[in-house]
Design brief:
Oligomer: homodimer
Number of strands of chain A: 14
Strand order of the largest sheet of chain A: 2-8-7-6-5-3-4
Distance between the termini of chain A: 25 Å
Helix content of chain A: 25-40%
Bound molecules: pyridoxal-5'-phosphate
InterPro entries (chains A, B): Alliinase_C, Alliinase_N_sf, Ethylene_sulfur-biosynth, PyrdxlP-dep_Trfase, PyrdxlP-dep_Trfase_major, PyrdxlP-dep_Trfase_small
Protein name (chains A, B): Alliinase C-terminal domain-containing protein
Number of domains of chain A: 2
Keywords (chains A, B): Pyridoxal phosphate
Shape of chain A: globular
Largest sheet of chain A: 7 strands, mixed
Cofactor (chains A, B): pyridoxal 5'-phosphate
GO molecular function (chains A, B): carbon-sulfur lyase activity; transaminase activity
CATH superfamily of the largest domain in chain A: Type I PLP-dependent aspartate aminotransferase-like (Major domain)
């Protein structure tokens, strides 16, 4: 298994659209209900995938990383997180012409810094904040900023397997001459590279450090899941480039807002330039909504100000995740056919207590001798998952989302428990 | 002059960051006031570039295409175009899983179709609507969708000079192996290409058709300015791929919403895939705001429904543009040092009368014998413009925005009139 992903990806690199690997497109459509629901709700804002009252949807359990679990929390907060936008507001391309990131709303910058100070998960002093259309756009921006423009060869992009399935797909889809996917970081040989460090890791929840170190190498730390609902906050991270997203911190994936904390001004400038050329900045409406939502989260813990609200996102999130992981471990034990990563824990500086690691995804291994394709096996039992081979790993593994709505999660658990 | 742009661009194609051509980054920063204003308004949403009460800003007249002229209209409409978003709304990555464009809000799709039916500027029946983070993202999506994935060579991307300065920059910044800028369409030799047809054209306002035709060639029609405030609506456009944006139709550039009308389902699918890989979809908040705003525009003309509001965007816009073009022609005549494209007009099927072409940019030529660099000359007189050479044209030309706020436009006019 160890050598296979690398071989596979060396093959992929020269191919335009990754034959042999299911693209995120196919993945996502595999996750989605069947066509036929289009336009159903044309008079109202969308609600994401249809709920389980619709029979056709019963199959779509647990596949995508859609964070709809958090909806229940935000329904409770009332108008504390409600945004009103008058017709004439923020019409300009520009937001803050004196900032490196000239299209960033100052309110957003402010609330990002405030939340990191509240949680203590990342340093912000001396950092540039950059806003992106999701952290996915900032991931591409980082590749662009860190690849030398005058190099003969594209810079190699690597990550320890199992790695987030979008990394290879997003790196290679335009066949850029600046950067190119080069597979598992552990098998990489060379001096010049960009290492993606995802911690806690998607798909397996592992706490990670960079495995490579060379003067010419660079690291991008994807800290999408470094929040108290998922993992103990053991230190204030202070890497050169750190990526975050509201998709995973607050659950607002539809708002498409991510941010980067960047130490070096020139890197910040080049990342900003990427976003400028790619989309001429980032939706102000989304930035203002994200600022509102992040502000509401900080308000929940603002004890110093005396105004701490009773709505505390990380308490809600941790309670949910602890409960769901307990259910999952019980279901796996009841079934006997699956194993899960061992539970780890640590001292959480935010909660001021020992807390377990409760990853946003379950990295499930099928232990049955006769099953080599775990995703296929589960699909046959109406559980949709992403196969391990999409993450550069063994297809005996699958990734399951832990962030779906309660009804979907409950169905997943009861189906899993009944499998022998 | 005719051969120069092509030579220049053949040179550029092999260079990562276009030495010798001012990048949009530099352009935009040249347009912006000096640093030092950062964070000034951190308690409120941004208002774009500071107004002219600030002395440092006096220089930034007329440079970018920021459509702040329309703010005055939207301040009049009251809550007809106001959007309220509860904290729990549209949190999912998904909007409409049965649609090719699975991340598009059905309300947005609906209002786009309604507005085109109201205005009569483009066919929508039998078309897929796709939403993008500005039409800039959909421009890249079209290049991705139209470039054969298995070609040995990148597909050539061309447009008749003078062309929108972003086309070469956006095409080449990632040095894609799929597509590559190849300069002026009129000098192109070959069978396989993507021709960008911008009509009315940025920068010169010309009404354009494709100049190339071959079985293997493709065209993308950028109709950002094909709206009644800028030009007579002479026909219902029905090209294979048509791009539009709220940035120019309603003035909401900060919302970052564009759309494509696409005939072919496979092309629509590949464009959607681009947006999925690039940013996992498009802000729902922005889509809902755009739907609200487009709906308010249609409401202004909904005579059949009996509910036509008294706020009519295209009437406002046309009145403004007519007035501004009159002022500009008078100022150019008073100065004697500049010439402008001749005024053209046509029968507007929307307004049901003859209407002039009133472009969103003035394509100004400096007629003084001693001035070869018109942008430099104007900069010396505190008028910032984009030089013709950024559009593949003669630096005796400059592009000036006609969509700035009244105060900025008035200063520009008085400065121009006083130049001899
Ligand atoms: C590790 C990681 N990074 C980034 C993302 C994408 O986040 P965004 O929605 O901000 O683009 C995800 C989403 O699943 C993720 O798991
Ligand atoms: C011709 C043309 N197309 C596209 C755009 C970009 O529009 P958007 O703001 O939707 O990305 C512009 C903006 O100036 C333009 O002039």
């Amino acid at each position: 298994v160890a050598a296979l992903p690398l071989l596979l990806h060396q093959y992929i690199v020269n191919q335009p659209h990754h034959p042999g690997v299911v693209s995120p497109d196919q993945q996502r459509h595999a996750c989605a209900p069947q066509p036929g629901t289009s336009g159903a709700a044309a008079r109202a804002p969308s609600t994401g995938k249809p709920s389980f009252t619709n029979a056709f949807d019963i199959r779509s359990v647990g596949c995508s990383g859609d964070p709809t679990m958090f909806e229940a929390f935000w329904r409770e907060t009332g108008d504390a997180a409600e945004l009103v936008i008058p017709g004439w507001q923020t019409m300009s391309y520009f937001s803050d012409v004196g900032n490196v990131c000239w299209f960033m709303e100052p309110l957003f910058d402010q609330q990002v810094r405030r939340l990191h100070r509240t949680v203590g998960n990342a340093a912000v002093d001396g950092y540039h904040v950059l806003v992106g259309t999701g952290s996915t756009q900032l991931f591409m921006a980082a590749l662009y900023a860190l690849s030398p423009a005058d190099a003969d060869q594209p810079t190699s992009v690597v990550s320890t397997a199992p790695y987030y399935s979008s990394y290879p797909a997003v790196t290679d889809f335009l066949r850029s001459g600046l950067f190119r996917w080069a597979g598992d970081a552990n098998s990489f040989v060379g001096d010049s590279y960009i290492e993606l460090v995802c911690s806690p890791n998607n798909p397996d929840g592992a706490i990670r450090d960079a495995v490579l170190s060379s003067g010419a190498g660079k690291a991008v730390h994807d800290l999408a899941y470094y929040w108290p609902q998922y993992t103990p906050i053991t230190r204030r991270a202070d890497h050169d480039i750190m990526l975050f997203t509201v998709s995973k911190s607050t659950g607002h994936a539809g708002t498409r807002i991510g941010w980067a904390l960047v130490k070096d001004r020139e890197v910040a400038r080049r990342m900003t330039k990427f976003v400028e050329l790619n989309t001429i900045g980032v939706s102000k409406d989304s930035q203002l909504r994200a600022a509102k939502v992040l502000g509401a989260v900080s308000d929940g813990y603002d004890v110093g100000g005396g105004g701490a609200s009773r709505h505390r996102l990380f308490d809600f999130g941790r309670r949910k995740m602890v409960e769901r992981w307990r259910m999952l471990r019980e279901a796996a034990a009841a079934s006997g056919a699956f194993s899960l990563p061992a539970e780890t824990s640590g001292q959480c500086n935010f909660a001021n207590e020992t807390a377990a690691n409760n990853p946003a995804f379950a990295w499930l291994r099928c232990d049955r001798e006769d099953v080599e394709d775990c995703a296929g096996f589960l699909r046959g039992h109406k559980i949709l998952t992403r196969s391990g081979n999409q993450f550069g790993a063994d297809p005996r593994y699958v990734r399951v989302s832990m962030l779906d709505r309660d009804d979907a999660y409950d169905i997943f658990i009861s189906r899993l428990a009944s499998l022998k």
